[in-house]
Amino acid sequence: MAASPFARIGRFLFVVAAAAGLAGCGINSIPTADEEAKAKWADVQNQYQRRADLIPNLVATVKGYATHEEKTLSEVTQARARATGVTLTADDLTDPAKMAAFQQAQGQLSQGLGRLMVAVEAYPDLKANQNFLALQSQLEGTENRISVARRDYNEAVRQYNTLIRTFPAIIGAKVIYGAKPMVPFQATTPGAEQAPTVSFDSAPAPAPAANDNTAQQPGQAAAN
Question: What is the pLDDT of residues 64-122, one digit of tens each?
Fold first, then answer.
């Protein structure tokens, strides 16, 4: 027996009401916000990788001029190895311990780069080297992009975390998705929230005292 028009209308209204209820519970908005935060995290990782890719050339260039900075260069190289060895996937964004490990490794690398940039103030010839100037400019731009990417990620995380804790989306977050709050990016080491200073506008510091065995004579700087 065919259903009456009223029964069909009733079923239609039920489906509409159910769909509206699910939408109100975050059936669409939660995964959208989740994917947005993960996409922003990918941007953060891309910028950190770009910085890591610049460091070998930077270290090699500085080494050719700053023969007294072997310890600082070694620290930067080691910090880079540790930073690139700590990976954080999109699925790890709800794990505070893994996020803390990633932040700490990147923060230590930032500090090492900061110390290196202070050290090169003592080498006017290096600061005038075109290859170094190009690397310095790229590093400065990358640090700025890292800052922007982290800010955008944190904003996406804020929106996601607010959504899954707010009624009625909290129902879908708990019942349908089992959603957990994501961890924002925060500096974990003193000064890690600051990009390394790479500006050379100030007057150079006096060069290290030379002796007969270690003095670098003009023309001995390594070619780029």
Answer: 999 899 999 999 999 999 999 999 999 999 999 999 999 999 999 999 999 999 999 99
- The answer to whether residues 167 and 152 touch, using CB atoms and an 8 Å cutoff, is no
- pTM more than 0.85: no
Do 200 and 169 form a contact (C-beta atoms < 8 A)?
A: no
CB 162 within 8 A of CB 30: no
Q: How many of the other CB atoms lie within 10 Å of CB of 66?
A: 21
Question: What sign results for the dihedral spanned by CA atoms 18, 21, 23, 25?
Answer: negative
End-to-end CA distance of the chain: 88
The amino acid occupying position 200 is F
Q: For domain 14-177, give its CATH number from 3.30.70.560, 3.40.718.10, 1.20.1440.20, 3.40.50.1820.
A: 1.20.1440.20
Cα distance between residue 161 and residue 184, in whole Å? 10
Q: Can you tell me the distance from the alpha carbon of 23 to that of 12, in angstroms, rounded to the nearest whole number?
A: 16
